[in-house]
Amino acid sequence: MSNYEHTIIARQDTSISQIKQIKEKYSDLILKNKGNIVQTQEWGLMNLSYLIKKNKKGNYIHFKIECDGSLIRKLEKNSGRPISILTDLQGPKLRVGSFQNSEGVILKTNSNFVLDLSKEKGSEERVSFPHPELYEHLKIGQNSYINDGHLKLKITENKNNKINTKVISPGKITNNKGVNLPDLKFTLPAITEKDESDIEFALKNNVDWIALSFVQHANDILNLKKRIDGKASVIAKLEKPSALKDLDNIIKVADGIMIARGDLGIEVPLETVPVLQKKIIRNCRRSAKPSIVATQMLESMITSPIPTRAESSDVATAVYDGADAVMLSAETAIGRFPLRTVETMNRIISEVENDAHYSNIIDLNYKKEDINSSDAIVIAAKGISSMASIKAIVTYTTSGSTTYRLAKQRPPSPILSITPSKSVARQSCLVWGVHSVINEEKIPETKIAEESAKIAIREKIAEVDDQLIITAGIPFGTVGSTNSIRLIKINKEYG
């Protein structure tokens, strides 16, 4: 049994009695499949980041559940919508042990603090640092950062498996906090023994994405891909300076990128992080690879009901840069105001994407040599949707490539991605602006317009007299062959 969180968004006009029925329906499904309901929350009517089936708002119902991973697929089938599952591998993350006081301890400036191999719980004088392979490589004068850099320790002595340090930047340290050693010249393996076990679990439960932590070279991604043999897509988490030196190759072989700013901001000069973020997102968009900006987005909301103005600007900047997703961490994992944090981030995203200047800021500039035929088609589709009243741009895709290429253009119309592949539909949930539909039936080329109209009406994205743009490859169904664009008006015959 593992812990999961599952959110259902009901239409904005859903009645109280209907919400009750939805809760009962999903609760019964969970319990019948030997799952446990830890908590059920009604978050109420909240704004959506984008229009879903003509709804600007939705009624959010949130479940915290314990279950076997297979139950997620049953929930997916029941809801009729693809659900994307991401497994985040811990990687060679260095952590301290636990403390006698479960709330941790406060370290004061210039105080002495010891890192050692003892299994005893820590105190204000010491804590376990269970990584014996590193001790001989740690030198006097090197810095150690704990909890994403909130604490800074300088090594003063390394003797008898005890690392004596002096507290430079004070603060609170709690159980199992991460440790960064940017001065350490020692490379740990990209995939640990624990990762191997977690990969096995992830594949057994049919996850869609596996995020590899502390990627340093493109070969780290290739080795993981060889290990999983196409059973999931891979996200490269950028947290090390060495990864930035091999950035182009990493983006080329990875299926997506996560900018993990907590560790990255310690490993590289702090002032370079905003520049690197823009560069990474820009390169991801040019390569049609989804990007995620993570860590310390609304950090102050761990303890405060409102964020700082700087944090609001930070989230907005990531959206203006063209990130596909912005990710909360401690704010919702251990924060006091998880719901309010989600609401706040949602409002910021919506405000930015409704900005009249957003489309101009987000536009990509191309070199002619960088544009292939598929790019030309999706650029044309965006252009038409910007000038005409288009309800949706329909992509027929086998691999997801066309959908990803269109998404990077940030068109003003929703993207209706139709695919025969369940895995492509699920993975597309991570991509900006995509409403993915699984259609396993083979559609004749002569019926593309008719079927597109039917699916758009069924999904409540469009109705009779609305216009759609359709992109597809001819011959139909051939991977990487998007070469046609068509503008149709939905008439009664199609509907």
Largest sheet at a glance? 7 strands, mixed
CATH superfamily of the largest domain: Phosphoenolpyruvate-binding domains
Estimate percent helicity.
25-40%
CATH architecture of the largest domain: Alpha-Beta Barrel
Give the CA-CA distance, first to last residue: 45 Å
| Uncertain residue segments | none
Rg from alpha-carbon coordinates: 24 Å
Structural class by helix and strand composition: alpha/beta
**SS field, number of helical segments:** 16
CATH class annotation of the largest domain: Alpha Beta
Q: What is the overall shape?
A: globular
Tell me the total number of β-strands. 23
CATH topology of the largest domain: TIM Barrel
Structure description:
The longest helix is centred in the first third of the chain and has 17 residues. The chain has a seven-stranded mixed β-sheet with strand order 5-13-9-10-11-7-8, covered by helices on one side. A six-stranded parallel β-sheet has the order 4-14-15-16-17-18. Helix 4 packs parallel to helix 6 and helix 9 crosses helix 11. It has 495 residues and is α/β, with parallel strands linked by helices. Helix content is 32%, strand content 27%. Strand 14, helix 4 and strand 15 form a beta-alpha-beta unit. It has four domains: 80 residues, Ribosomal protein S6/Translation elongation factor EF1B (Alpha-Beta Plaits, 2-Layer Sandwich), CATH 3.30.70; 87 residues, Beta Barrel (M1 Pyruvate Kinase, Domain 3), CATH 2.40.33.10; 169 residues, Phosphoenolpyruvate-binding domains (TIM Barrel, Alpha-Beta Barrel), CATH 3.20.20; 122 residues, Pyruvate kinase, C-terminal domain (Pyruvate Kinase, Chain: A, domain 1), CATH 3.40.1380. The chain contains 16 helices and 23 strands.
